[in-house]
Amino acid sequence: MHRDDTWPERAAAELRPALAAAVSHGNVPGAVAVLGRPGTALVVLTHGTLGAECGPHAPDRHTRYDLASLTKVLATWPLVGQARHAARLDLDAPIRTIDAELPPPGADLTVRQLMAHTSGLLPETNLAQYHHSGRPLAHHLCAEPLVSTPGTEHRYVDRGFILLGLLLPTVLGAPLDRLADDLWRDLGLTATAYGPLPRSPQLAPTEQRLLGAPRTWGIPHDPSAALLGGVAGHAGVFSTAADLAAFAERLLDPPDPLAAWLAAWLAESARPQAAAGPGLHRGLAWLGTGDGRALYHHGYTGTSLYLSPATGRYLVLLTNAVYHGWDRARLTPVRDLALRLVARSP
């Protein structure tokens, strides 16, 4: 690993005005970022507020945010790795080996295809149609027609990780939220949890769905996760910048042999599984740059986590951008800069 002790301060100097501009232009109410690498002092940047409901309080590294799709890499991805490490899961076996009653065509999909977003599952989530049907949701998802031949096309969909979240309890023998909680506590992540959480000035509210109604606050912004009771494989987790920084450090520099499997799992997950756009590939859950210098994942609410295994750099970016309604372009300049900073040559 290349030693680059000054990177957090240098990168923070470039990121700071971009965060301030995002707040002053009304793109986000506020933001918190943490930049670091194992063995060096981390740098914390904060701007703005959490929103009118929280008063003048500025976010900090202990403020909880709805992570949205960062749930995929903070909960489902490490649990799949844990199951694989324990020899309880074969990435390339059809998922009917987990549940023999799953119907085709989905029963023949593999965990690798689900994690690489090459399953061919329908892109529209639309779980409400199956609510209160009396049939397991995993069976509904597997019975749906596929839109492409599995393993041939990359298409980012939530359904694959929803399905993984439904299957992991069978593989590992406990409910998803308990499995995730045990994993997070083993990793020292004390503020990471599935909701619902009580509203407070240390919890960022998200979107106002109905004019005049309270904002979504302490329950998942994602409607499919909400239908699943807040516990799902694709969304539903709340966490802080401090916990995400600790998670990044444990991925990049495991503190003990018990966590060493995480670094090996990250290296395996970084290998390209499918092209995912110009200069990008999809690994197992993570997006990677074509030059191999960075891995990252975004969350719909306005959250991001960036890693550089080669240099040990990481950057956590947490916002509640959906507070103002959602326009993906709002965070594009900040997110693009964050990726460039992490992937930059020393």
From TrEMBL:
Question: EC number(s) of the enzyme?
Answer: 3.1.1.103
Any one GO MF term held by the record is: hydrolase activity
Tell me what this protein is called.
Serine hydrolase domain-containing protein
- Species, as recorded: Kitasatospora camelliae
Give the matching InterPro entries: Beta-lactam-related (IPR001466), Beta-lactam/transpept-like (IPR012338), Diverse_Enzym_Activities (IPR050789)
Under Pfam families, the record lists: Beta-lactamase
From the broadest rank down, the organism's phylogenetic lineage runs:
Bacteria, Bacillati, Actinomycetota, Actinomycetes, Kitasatosporales
Q: Where is the Beta-lactamase-related domain?
A: 22-338
Q: Which UniProt keywords apply?
A: Hydrolase
